[in-house]
Amino acid sequence: MRAPVSRPLPALFQPETTPARRVAQHQVNRNLALLLLLLTFACITSFASAYYLFTTRWEARKVPRPWLQADTISQANASTSTDEKFLAYLPHSGFHNQRIAFENALLLAYALRRTLLVPPIRLGNKPIRYVEYDRLSRHHELSAKEGLYHCLQVPPYVSRPPECLQYFESTYLPWDWLVNMTGLGSQQPLVYRPNMAQAWIFKTTGVEPSDVFTLRDSVPYQYRFLDNDSHYSPPQDRYSQDIYFTDLANVQERLLQFGTLFGTSRLRLRDPNNLAYRRRIRQSMMFSNNDLLSVADSIAGFFRGPYVAIHLRTGDGSFKRTANETAKEVWWTLLRDVLGVPPSEKCELEQKFAEESSNNCIPDPACADATLELSSTPTSRPNL
Ligand SMILES: *[C@@H]1O[C@H](CO)[C@@H](O)[C@H](O)[C@H]1NC(C)=O
Ligand SMILES: *[C@@H]1O[C@H](CO)[C@@H](O)[C@H](O)[C@H]1NC(C)=O
Ligand SMILES: *[C@@H]1O[C@H](CO)[C@@H](O)[C@H](O)[C@H]1NC(C)=O
Ligand SMILES: *[C@@H]1O[C@H](CO)[C@@H](O)[C@H](O)[C@H]1NC(C)=O
To answer: Where are the transmembrane segments (predicted)?
Structure first.
């Protein structure tokens, strides 16, 4: 059986509309008209504001951007001398890993008498992690900001164009913004790269793409560089391949391109001249940026007496797991080696702090063994 189709009753059978109903009907009509008017108005205003936002989107926010100079100022002039040889490498990971690679690159370029193409420091929450040479090179090419400066002008109330989504995740700064490069710059030729594009190298240095010797790595600890031919890495060494400075000096190509140069023990130096220059490089890495120094000074102003500051990595991986032990070791090293507190007083101090903090008594190994040695704390492990 099918349910009967319900149909509206013929007009004849509909109950007659009473005057009261007519008034109600009238009211409904008026409300509808009002609603329509309102909707039309809303429609027109939203179109108008969308049009306004569209036409004014790139002018609205003029951000002062002194650090943009990082990308423009250091457009060093192309070296026209065809004898000049260059050295480049691919940085990666967080700031201190980039610094370690930079120190190694400075020494290699100095020893090989090549002009170092200095990459910018890349800062941000999402570092470019180590991957094998070709992929790392590609990641650098893709993270360049050329042609994207309009992203800075997009006002905050407009959703960002897709090409700008990652724009604010990182920034490039030239090394000579952060540290004083004057001393090293007088010892060896340096050219500051505004970005990591290969094309910039060829354009600026005049090197032909065919005139490049690339040392491709496929794992982070692959090549170790030694400055003495009768020297070698111990067999248990984590680097898998020794390369001698004399081999690198024989490279005839105008551009010697490395992948990662990260690692505090990547260079195995014997030559006293190189060792001295490496010390000088490391001393030069002290921050000298006036803005940063004034922030540090204002923080220091809060302490009434002299103080010691420690930069301790405890946020990730094995550093996180061993954070408590590391903090303890650093504390004891500080007392013993920096402040010269004798062992007996160290124990008193420890007890005093333990009482002050909580009832959680800190175990004090050095009280039992005053000759506690700082166990080898991994300082050069990359955050890959
Ligand atoms: C590059 O060379 C040109 C002409 O030789 C000179 O005018 C210009 O100032 C140089 N630029 C830099 C950044 O050295
Ligand atoms: C940078 O170092 C050089 C010497 O290496 C020194 O003469 C100069 O005053 C330093 N510059 C600043 C800003 O500290
Ligand atoms: C390499 O080291 C040996 C001994 O350590 C030394 O006698 C020799 O002069 C060094 N060679 C060079 C080129 O520095
Ligand atoms: C380190 O010590 C603190 C306080 O004693 C404790 O709460 C924390 O769980 C410890 N962390 C590790 C990783 O052992």
So the answer is: 32-54
21/25 Cα distance (integer angstroms) = 6
Q: How far apart are CA 120 and CA 89, in angstroms?
A: 11
Q: Which pLDDT does position 359 carry in this prediction?
A: 43
Amino acid at 25: Q
Range of the domain at 350: 290-376
298 and 216 belong to one structural domain: no
Give the binding-site residues of ligand 4, using a 6 Å CB cut-off. 321, 323-324
Pocket test for ligand 2, best of 182, 188, 281 (most atoms within 8 A of CB): 182
Atom of ligand 4 nearest to the CA of 322: 13
158 and 247, same domain (yes or no): yes
Which of 283, 304, 324 is the last residue before a domain boundary?
Answer: 283
From 222, 255, 283, the end of a domain falls on: 283
Reported as a single tens digit per residue, the pLDDT across 347-365 is 787 777 766 554 444 445 5
Beta sheet of 255-258, edge-to-edge order? 190-192, 115-118, 86-88, 255-258, 212-215
Give 273-296 pLDDT, tens digit per residue: 999 999 999 999 999 999 999 999
**Residue 246, Cβ density class (10 Å: 0-12 exposed, 13-18 middle, ≥19 buried):** exposed
Cβ of 288 below 6 Å from ligand 2: yes
Q: By alpha-carbon position, which residue is closest to atom 11 of ligand 2?
A: 180
pLDDT in tens, 173-197: 999 999 999 999 999 999 999 989 9
CA atoms within 13 A on the CB side of 214: 13
Q: How far apart are CA 54 and CA 49, in angstroms?
A: 8
Q: How far is the CA of 175 from the centre of ligand 2 (A)?
A: 14
The structural domain count of the chain equals 2
When pLDDT is cut at 50, 70 and 90, the band that residue 71 belongs to is very low
The CB of 289 under 6 Å from ligand 2? The reply is no
- Segment (H or E) for 241: strand 241-244
Residue bearing the CA closest to ligand 1, atom 2: 77
Closest ligand 4 atom to residue 320 Cα is: 13
User: Which amino acid residue places its CA nearest to atom 6 of ligand 4?
Assistant: 324
Instruction: Give 70 Cα–ligand 2 centroid separation in angstroms.
Output: 20
Q: CA–CA separation, 282 vs 106, rounded Å?
A: 10
Nearest CA to ligand 3 atom 7: 230
